[in-house]
């Protein structure tokens, strides 16, 4: 074990004792001392003994149960388990437990997991560990960077979320009656800003008179705050179609839409289907569609490429509409509630984007943050 890891664990124990002494509660102290991670079912018992020690994957994720991004990745792990991979899912907790994330990955490496798979949230940790553990291979999905800076044992998977968001932006513009729609996010980062940029582009291309309001929750796990933001946007700005890009916080958006009688657009997975089979099926009945980011499928395809010896390391692997990596849900509820002309426009755009006939705006095309802010300002009510 690395010396600095041993020191970090010692410090965690000291912090835990301090928390207990200060009235922090026994549960918090135990979590800090014992590690923040909780493990989802899986591994060798769920997937069968791996035939090759290099077929071992540790999927490090904030938490499952978001009915969105993280769960989509877990669906991919389930498929890989069925294909003979030894996949362990580690729930690392939210941003309040960030000081434990590196140790969680170190533990997975020490336990012999050859691949560490995680999202852009953990990129800085991955870049540090990749240098220290050249025999371990790391996959960072939903992120991009200059390929000249990517180590040979790291692969990035980047999705064209702006393309999928463009089409649901058209939907929002086609469904609004007030002329104001909203896009609310969990945290601000380049990937999320790319969602927002594509959404605004789609709204404006469909109807340049439609305005867009945008708000940030500040967390992926605060549905109560999300609900407050949406209720305020409906009350004060007349927003009547809401797009959430907020992980677990997104539940609050759906709750607000039920309360206000407005429409919602989900993200990453088919959130209509998730909620229809949940303890809160009424939330499904406001979700017109979801912008799909097929994380699970992309991870399955990625490791299929690895087995085939494809050139995936030390680079950014770009996935978009042409790879079926992004899109939107076209289910019965969508067809029943969205006018034919709007659905036709979305379908037409899907074909044109895939064919290169529509070049969707991307946050990554801006020269600096001020250009992105200018876009937000230009569509504000």
From TrEMBL:
CDD domains: PBP1_BMP-like. GO terms for cellular component: plasma membrane. Residues 59-358 form the ABC transporter substrate-binding protein PnrA-like domain. The keyword Transferase does not apply. Residues 41-50 have a biased composition (Acidic residues). It is a lipid-anchor. It is found in: Cell membrane. The keyword Plastid does not apply. This is BMP family ABC transporter substrate-binding protein.
